[in-house]
Specification:
It holds the Pfam family FAD_binding_4. By secondary structure, the protein is an alpha+beta fold. The protein has a domain at about 210-440: Alpha-Beta Plaits, CATH 3.30.70.2520. It has helices at about 1-25, 50-65, 115-120, 140-145, 185-190, 225-235, 285-295, 295-315, 320-325, 350-365, 405-425, 440-445, 450-460, 470-475, and strands at about 30, 40, 45, 70, 85-90, 95-100, 105-110, 125-130, 160-170, 175-180, 200-210, 210-220, 240-245, 255-265, 315-320, 340-350, 370-380, 395-405, 430. β6 (about 95-100) and β7 (about 105-110) form a beta hairpin. The relative contact order is 0.12.
Length: about 475
């Protein structure tokens, strides 16, 4: 009889503990970033509702041994903002404007503020941001952590517009970091993917808002490098620039249009145009983008419509602030079986022609690789960040790719993307790090020759590896 009772006792204990573990697992929040390819359960999500709250989160993690990750809008796509069983700090509510000096053209904001928050605050004063992404939906802390660049061709990467920032360290201390104070940390944290602590607030240099005349031209890809050098870079009146190259089968990686934003003669009319634009009706571009996802004729149609629309928009006027408020809603995409991922490749201006030829050779052989768009920007050489992507003056090609979420879909994308990165590296280029972890460790080391130094500094500064993410755990 006692054996039966003992068995029942052990069974109940095991059942109770497994049920408790199951409940704990079920109660843990599951998170994913914009790529939706790495959904995982984190221990908890802690909202950053103040500096003291953030301090307590770090202090508690040091007591419990928990790992910490930092999240903003989570548009990085390779798990750079979370990790399994880690405590994820949600920075979005930590978004106040702290100080604004229109005379000095500086602004200090908490790191959860977005570029939209800044634009709305400074636009009435005739000021604008120097460097940011083409869209204004991202947080400042996240933008700093990936060292963004944008359409402006007269300013470098974001790092060159930062005056200073405050950092909550893995030990719970608060440091002011600039080129004068704790200067050894500055080039690691900017472009450091949240691995050195929590960026609390940032002081940025601003510039004057300006009125631009938009000019759009069509050309063959073989003309682009020389056009850019003479008509864009060589013309100081051109302030911002972007281009798109066709992914439509009929003109694949051959036909282009370029858009230049030229300092307008009628600056006295700035006030006529300086109301901040909001998202426009997105039904038509959303419909056309949808068609291009599923058919070659849809891609051809979308490209033809883009060319016509951009041609009609030529010789119109737009303020600097509004150029930096590109529509995003039409790109929203929901599917249970597919997702859309980004890649960004940097290639020297002089290598563009040969690079596109080699890229085309690779992609024309890849059946089922669904490339939707390539946008091209210019990035001036900048080696101020340890993980700098612009080793010389570069064109940045941003690729939008529609792919399956399945294991086979991921493997297929990985294989093609590694081939594209090999082409990029063969042309002395590099690739951007905020995206899915498709590149190999060897490709990372070639694209970022200081990556070992970066990881060594991380380990030295955060010996307990309190702050982590998928990127760090995959490549360290």
């Amino acid at each position: 009889m006692w054996k039966v009772l003992l068995f029942l006792f052990i069974y109940c204990a095991l059942f109770g503990s497994s049920f408790y573990a199951y409940k704990q697992l079920r109660s843990q929040p599951v998170v994913a970033d914009a790529g939706r390819l790495l959904p995982v359960a984190v221990k908890s999500i802690e909202k950053a509702d103040g500096e003291e709250t953030l301090r307590r989160i770090v202090e508690k993690a040091n007591e419990t041994g928990d790992k910490l990750t930092i999240a903003g809008m989570q548009h990085s796509q390779g798990g750079q903002t979370y990790y399994p069983e880690a405590v994820m700090i949600d920075m979005k509510s930590y978004n106040k404007i702290i100080e604004f000096d229109p005379g000095e053209k500086t602004i200090t904001v908490q790191s959860g503020a977005t570029w939209d928050d800044i634009q709305r605050h400074i636009n009435p004063y005739g000021l604008a941001v120097k460097v940011m992404q083409s869209q204004n939906i991202f947080t400042i802390g996240g933008s700093l952590s990936v060292n963004v660049h944008g359409r402006d061709i007269r300013n470098d990467s974001l790092i060159d517009t930062i005056e200073s920032f405050r950092l909550l360290t893995p030990r719970g201390e608060i440091l002011n970091v600039s080129r004068q104070e704790h200067a050894d940390l500055f080039p690691y944290i900017v472009g450091g993917y949240g691995l050195f602590g929590v960026i609390l607030d940032v002081t940025l240099h601003l510039t004057d808002d300006e009125l631009y005349e938009r000019k759009t031209s069509m050309m063959d890809y073989s003309e682009y490098s020389s056009y850019f050098e003479k008509e864009v870079k060589g013309n100081p009146a051109v302030k911002m620039h972007l281009a798109r190259i066709s992914v439509a089968p009929e003109t694949f990686l051959r036909e282009m249009y370029v858009t230049d934003y030229i300092y307008a003669d009628n600056q006295n009319e700035l006030s006529k145009y300086n109301d901040l634009k909001e998202e426009r009706i997105v039904a038509l571009p959303k419909f056309l983008l949808g068609l291009s996802r599923y058919s070659d004729w849809g891609k051809n149609l979308f490209w033809d419509v883009q060319k016509k629309y951009m041609g009609n928009e030529s010789s119109t006027y737009e303020t600097r602030n509004n150029v930096m408020r590109s529509d995003t809603n039409f790109m929203n995409y929901e599917s249970s079986t597919r997702t859309e991922v980004l890649q960004e490749y940097f290639v020297p201006v002089d290598d563009f022609l040969g690079y596109v030829d080699d890229l085309r050779s690779v992609l024309e052989k890849e059946e089922g690789f669904n490339l939707l768009n390539i946008t091209i920007r210019y990035v001036e050489k900048s080696d101020h960040a340890v993980l700098s992507y612009a080793k010389e003056d570069m064109f940045a090609l941003v690729l939008l790719i529609n792919q399956e979420k399945s294991e086979n879909g991921i493997k297929h994308s990985e294989a093609v993307i590694q081939k594209m990165i090999d082409v990029t590296l063969n042309h002395n280029g590099s690739y951007y790090l905020p995206y899915y972890l498709y590149p190999s460790k060897e490709q990372l080391a070639e694209a970022y020759p200081r990556i070992s130094e970066f990881f060594e500094k991380k380990k030295e500064y955060d010996s307990d590896e309190r702050f982590t993410n998928y990127f760090y755990e995959e490549y360290k």
